[in-house]
Specification:
Blueprint: E1 6-11, E2 28-29, E3 32-33, H1 34-47, E4 53-58, H2 63-70, E5 75-79, H3 84-94, E6 99-104, H4 112-125, E7 127-133, E8 138-142, E9 145-149, E10 155-157, E11 161-164, H5 165-173, H6 181-187, E12 193-196, H7 207-219, E13 221-235, E14 240-242, E15 245-247, E16 253-254, H8 262-275, H9 280-283, H10 296-309, E17 313-322, H11 332-343, E18 351-356, H12 362-365, E19 369-381, H13 383-386
Parallel strand pairs: 1-4, 1-6, 4-5, 7-12, 17-18
Antiparallel strand pairs: 2-3, 6-11, 7-10, 7-11, 8-9, 13-16, 13-19, 14-15, 17-19
Helix pairs in contact: 3-5, 8-10
Length: 388
């Protein structure tokens, strides 16, 4: 049961000019766009019923992302304005909850615990904001005069900030603008509760912030390696398929239930092994006629999808094919390019293949079969650890 009283706005429409280059909320942090870090926490709140909806505020340039998000249950989008206050106002108009959490997309290390504290206090007071004490000595500057200031009276303000939605909507509709929503709220004379903020919930603004965030994420990166092996007999009358490439001039082909693509099968098992998932014999059993003569690269697409759904990123796959016939040296680059298309979303090369002759030794050398080994390296970021 969703808590219909609460909505969650993620403000992701800014340009992040102080950091330079691509808008900071869309930079990849640990392979994941910055905005998705806090979005993942909001999704957990949505899935657990703590909130009823998420509204992501995006610029008009992000129309494709907006369409993808809007297709999901409980997720809406709003168009960003020229100023933050207009963007938040547009988000509030889309919301339906009695209360709303408003969060900066450039604060990736949000926690559910902070959200829970803010929600509890807001339901008592009408608004709540996270504050942190100023730890440095501060000075007040008036023209040429520099004077000491009492730092115990000053606090740093974070997001998310939580409010009664209708009251904040009415305030912003008057055109009031400030550095954050709490300033407008306080200026109007409304009470606001103070919640202790979290040092880890910092905003990425300057290059130093980016380096700090990247270092924190790197500490929680998990890397795994998996090994794959496969062997198929060579027979006459079968088409030879390797790495998804049909080799027309081969006098023999590989025998098997599917297309018997020994390279692709090996790569799949290496990936599944690294992710700790069952092998291809379990996922695509030979007893199932659906996989009779199946295109193994289509099966690889399913494996890659499964890998990514489990949070893994494919870093590299290295394979060695042991084959006596036919001669494959002239098409190795084609085999690499074809299988790489299955493994890489961004076009970056993530696959390598070497071909070794059987040197007329053993079953491979007698042209009875082909054998293949592969090693896959996967990595993923433990977002939950960073959100603690």
């Amino acid at each position: 049961m969703k808590n219909a009283e609460w909505s969650f706005i993620i403000a992701a429409g800014g340009h992040g000019s102080r950091l330079g280059g691509e808008a900071k909320q869309f930079r990849l942090l640990g392979g994941i766009p910055v905005w998705q870090w806090s979005f993942a926490v909001a999704e957990e709140l949505l899935d657990s019923g703590k909130i009823s909806e998420i509204v992501v505020v995006l610029s008009s340039e992000m129309s494709r992302l907006a369409a993808e998000l809007s297709a999901k249950n409980g997720i809406k989008t709003a168009l960003a304005g020229a100023e933050r206050s207009q963007s938040v106002l547009n988000g509030l108009k889309v919301c339906s909850g009695k209360y709303v959490l408003i969060h900066d997309a450039a604060r990736p290390f949000l926690t559910k615990e902070l959200c829970a504290k803010l929600m509890e206090e807001t339901e008592k007071t009408g608004a709540a904001i996270p504050l942190l004490p100023v730890v440095d000595s501060i000075k007040f500057i008036d023209g040429e005069k520099i004077a000491p200031a009492d730092r115990t009276k000053y606090f740093r303000t974070q997001t998310p900030q939580a409010f009664e939605r209708e009251k904040l909507l009415r305030l912003l509709e008057t055109g009031k603008s400030a550095a954050d929503e709490a300033s407008v709220w306080i200026e109007a004379g409304y009470p606001v509760a103070r919640v202790e903020g979290e040092e880890g919930n910092f905003k990425i603004t300057a290059p130093h912030d980016w380096l700090t965030a990247a270092n924190l994420v790197a500490e929680n990166k998990e890397t795994r390696t998996g090994h794959g092996f496969d062997v198929h007999p060579l027979v006459k009358g079968r088409r030879l398929v390797l790495a998804g490439v049909k080799i027309a001039d081969s006098p023999v082909g590989l025998d098997g239930h599917s297309d018997a693509d020994v390279v692709t099968h090996t790569v799949m098992d290496a990936l599944l092994g690294a992710a700790g998932l069952p092998d291809i014999g379990t996922l695509f059993p030979a007893s199932n006629d659906d996989y009779k003569d199946a295109d193994s690269t289509k099966l690889l697409d399913e494996v890659v999808k499964l890998i990514r759904e489990n949070g893994w990123k494919i870093d590299w796959v290295d394979a060695t094919l042991n084959a006596q016939i036919p001669k494959l040296g002239g098409i190795i680059n084609e085999l690499i390019a074809n299988l790489n298309r299955c493994l890489s979303k961004d076009g970056v090369r993530r696959f390598n293949l070497k071909v070794k002759s059987g040197e007329k030794c053993g079953s491979v050398g007698r042209c009875e079969c082909m054998k293949c080994h592969a090693v896959a390296t996967l990595s993923r970021i433990n977002m939950q650890q960073n959100h603690k």
